[in-house]
């Protein structure tokens, strides 16, 4: 079975092996896949906001991805094992994640930045590492929301529009990430609260 996935600007293309990892057998169109995935993500969000455990752990990062995508993709919650167009070499993911979590804990402990900036910097590094074969943007946005809430602030608004479809809001988001890649975090900080 071949499913044509029209990836929006900035999304990771799935390879044939990953497409073969789709769990529901009845899905044949992109629309059905989107609907199914969205329902799974709502369940994951509901689960996430019930949790009272530590979130800055590798185990939580993987569990959250599994809760968001575990009814959809067989590889949900598992680090990728191939290289993607965005992200570090796949075999460096473990060490990069450990550094990211250590840095975030340090920043919180020492109030190195205001809460929004800690969470937005965390979001940027998470998508830049690109832990999973897919779902990295949605997972990293929810992680940043959970983190900023734990730091006493309301969750982010991320442009107040869907970022899944190609459009002006998504272009602004990708441009803000590209600025962050060049060490200017301000556009992403502003975008997250817009
Ligand atoms: N140039 C870039 N630099 C850093 N991160 C990027 C860049 N382009 C895209 N991204 C991030 O990668 C994500 C796309 O990765 P992936 O397809 O795994 O996530 P997704 O959740 O399936 O996508 P979506 O954002 O469409 O919901 C984007 O949402 C964005 O967060």
From TrEMBL:
Residues 56-194 form the Fido domain. Signal peptide: none annotated. One of its GO terms (biological process) is cell division. One of its GO terms (molecular function) is ATP binding. InterPro entries: Fido (IPR003812), Fido-like_dom_sf (IPR036597), Fido_containing (IPR040198), Mobile_mystery_prot_B (IPR013436). The active site is at residue 130. Keywords: ATP-binding, Cell cycle, Cell division, Nucleotide-binding. It comes from the Bacteria. Gene3D superfamilies: Fido-like domain. This is Cell division protein. It comes from Candidatus Symbiobacter mobilis CR. The lineage of its organism: Bacteria, Pseudomonadati, Pseudomonadota, Betaproteobacteria, Burkholderiales.
């Amino acid at each position: 079975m071949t499913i044509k996935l029209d990836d929006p600007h900035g999304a990771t293309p799935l390879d044939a092996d990953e497409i073969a990892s789709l769990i529901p057998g009845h899905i044949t169109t992109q629309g059905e896949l989107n609907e199914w995935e969205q329902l799974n993500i709502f369940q994951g969000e509901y689960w996430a906001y019930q949790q009272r455990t530590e979130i800055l752990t590798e185990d939580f990062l993987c569990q959250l991805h599994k809760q968001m995508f575990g009814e959809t993709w067989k590889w949900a919650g598992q680090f990728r094992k191939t290289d993607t167009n965005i992200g570090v070499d796949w075999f460096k993911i473990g060490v990069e994640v450990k550094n990211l979590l250590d840095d975030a804990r340090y920043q919180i402990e020492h109030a190195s930045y205001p809460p929004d900036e800690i969470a937005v910097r965390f979001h940027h590094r998470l998508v830049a590492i690109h832990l999973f074969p897919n779902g990295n943007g949605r997972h990293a946005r929810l992680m940043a929301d959970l983190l900023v809430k734990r730091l006493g602030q309301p969750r982010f608004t991320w442009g107040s529009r869907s970022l899944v479809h190609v459009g002006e809001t998504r272009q602004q988001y990708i441009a803000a990430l590209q600025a962050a890649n060049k060490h200017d975090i301000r556009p992403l900080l502003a975008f997250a609260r817009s």
